[in-house]
Specification:
The complex is a heterodimer of chains A (150) and B (391). Chain A contains 6 helices and no strands. With 150 residues, chain A is an all-alpha fold. Chain B has 391 residues and is mainly β. The chains are: A mainly alpha (150), B mainly beta (391).
Chain lengths: 150, 391
């Protein structure tokens, strides 16, 4: 009768790793991306100039970097700015962004949904509604299909 | 435009015969049904059953009257009509994954087959041994081929793939054809030569569908959230347009500058391309019906509010198709000037659309509930909408 192999560790080998023709993402130089400038954004929030703060925080998105800390810091900063807005001003804020800005904002919103804190989801949902009106379903599709995300 | 319902199963793919009296389609299983138009009805005249798995592609060669089918069972068959019966011939495609799409070349002496095995199989008939042989294009494909389209010169082949790139290859087969002359895409074209490769850097997703223009100088493709055109006449420059809609699944050049694309939004869209940097959305080609709301009793009204939190009782979509459109196909005219094109979708319906090159707005009558075809005339306007029964 056949004898079972003693060890079954070979079953845990990931064969696809050793495939030469495997698809690999391009490794773009992402080391220089540091995310939005914290000092600048904080000072703008304190001044009450929320539109400028929104534009500033959407600059320099840490898309290509592999450093998770930079990404987390950027997300926290964006959340701060979004929470500082008054509900009635959200729509104006979204209107002031261009196409790429709306896509980027959507990416941050969904990133924020991933790790909800006390009040973040409510704020994010309000922003989501306005951003959806501006960007359409296409902006959400782009969040889902982007290989390099914030 | 007219709609025909072929049941409730999604239609995976379809192909027309030369004079558009017969249509071959597959209702999401391993059988190809050929329907013939008798008067206003479509009657099933043939059933092609050779495949063992779901059929993924059908193409009907108009001149030589041969059908090629491919399926998830890693096989492709070429069918010829002998004595009113379709006889299959196996093609040796040598793939170890499912076939995804198949297209006859313009001269019908070969066809290309895309597969999940990350390669394109270009198949031609060898007279000596009386069988179909294949040659593979492997490099630099990195993932499943999702769609193919031939250039009018019978040599170049465009392929959209799941590795986010759209490519143009040369499929020149020495044994069966003469050396091709130079085109705007390049001059040296040995088999498998890559003439264009374009990868969307900001992640626009898989390339679902590709289409050459009538002259072959422009290539349009749709990805998850964008539509793009590469122009060989202008230095292979690529123009990109991100869309606000759900992903488009199929694209077709219908004129020298007009493109129609359709997808999960269940409605064909028209785009226009006038040159590099000038790719624009024109309009939706399916105008929503004017529906007259039948009067509901007060009880119905409150019952709806209570149960479904809505006053509407209808779950029907406004568009003709009730589910995503998966494939577009030319019915009359050629790519330089399409007059009619057809679309099939996941709702089991096939719709023939008329393309008005000069964009005249048309008033649509409502669709009446029935499973047979409804013809819509341009100027009549029926205002009563029947409701389909709930499923």
């Amino acid at each position: 009768m056949s004898k079972n192999t003693v060890t079954a560790r070979f079953r845990r080998v990931d064969v696809d790793e050793y495939d030469e023709n495997k698809f690999v993402d391009e490794e773009d130089g992402g080391e220089n991306q540091l995310g939005p400038d914290e000092g600048e954004v904080d000072s703008l929030i304190r001044q009450g100039n929320l539109m400028e703060a929104l534009h500033a925080v959407l600059k320099n998105p840490p898309i290509n970097t592999k450093n998770q800390n930079i990404k987390d810091r950027a997300e926290g900063l964006v959340l701060k700015v979004l929470s500082a807005f008054k509900s009635s001003d959200i729509e104006k804020g979204v209107q002031s962004l261009d196409r790429n800005g709306v896509d980027l904002l959507m990416k941050y919103i969904y990133k924020g949904f991933e790790r909800p804190s006390e009040n973040s989801s409510a704020v994010l949902l309000q922003w989501h509604e306005k951003a959806l009106a501006a960007g359409g379903v296409g902006s959400i599709v782009r969040v889902l299909t982007a290989r390099k995300t914030v | 435009m007219s709609l025909c319902s072929f049941g409730v199963e999604p239609l995976s793919c379809h192909a027309w015969n030369k004079d558009r009296t017969q249509i071959a389609l597959s209702p999401n299983n391993n059988i190809v049904n050929i329907f013939e138009k008798k008067g206003k009805e479509w009657v099933k005249i043939h059933e092609l059953t050779e495949h063992t798995e779901r059929i993924t592609g059908i193409d009907w060669a108009p001149e030589s009257n041969r059908i090629v089918t491919c399926a998830s069972d890693r096989n492709a068959y070429v069918w010829s009509l002998k004595d009113e019966v379709w006889k299959p011939t196996l093609v040796l495609v040598r793939i170890n994954r499912a076939a995804t799409c198949v297209k006859w070349s313009p001269l019908e002496n070969k066809f290309a087959l895309g597969s999940g095995a990350r390669l394109i199989s270009v198949c031609y008939f060898e007279e000596e041994n009386d069988w179909w042989l294949s040659k593979h294009i492997k490099k630099p494909l990195r993932s499943t081929i999702l769609s193919l389209d031939w250039h009018p010169n019978n040599i170049l082949l465009a392929a959209g793939s799941a590795d986010f790139s759209c490519r143009v290859f040369s499929a020149y087969i020495k044994d069966i054809e003469d050396k091709p002359g130079p085109t705007a895409w390049g001059t040296k074209m040995p088999f498998g030569e890559l003439m264009l490769e374009h990868k969307d850097s900001d992640g626009c997703g898989w390339v679902h569908s590709v289409s050459f223009s009538a002259s072959g100088d422009q290539l349009a493709w749709v990805a998850h959230s964008s539509i793009s055109v590469a122009d060989a006449a202008k230095g292979k420059e690529v123009t990109h347009l991100t869309t606000d809609y759900l992903p488009l699944l199929s694209v077709l050049f219908v004129g020298p500058t007009e493109i129609v694309a359709a997808g999960h939004d269940c409605c064909p869209f028209q785009y226009t391309y006038k040159g590099p940097g000038a790719l624009e959305f024109v309009k939706k080609l399916d105008m929503p019906k004017q529906s007259s709301k039948t009067t509901t009793s007060a009880m119905q009204h409150f019952r709806n509010l209570d149960k479904k939190a809505t006053e509407e009782d209808s779950t029907k979509l406004d568009t003709l198709h009730q589910n995503s459109i998966t494939q577009l196909c030319i019915v009359s005219g050629d790519k330089a000037k399409v007059e009619k094109y057809s679309s099939v979708g996941l709702d089991g319906a096939m719709v023939i659309w008329e393309f008005k090159q000069w964009g005249r707005d048309v008033e649509l009558p409502a669709l009446d509930s029935g499973t047979d075809c409804g013809e819509f005339e341009d100027d009549s306007f029926l205002s009563v909408q029947g409701k389909l029964g709930s499923f």
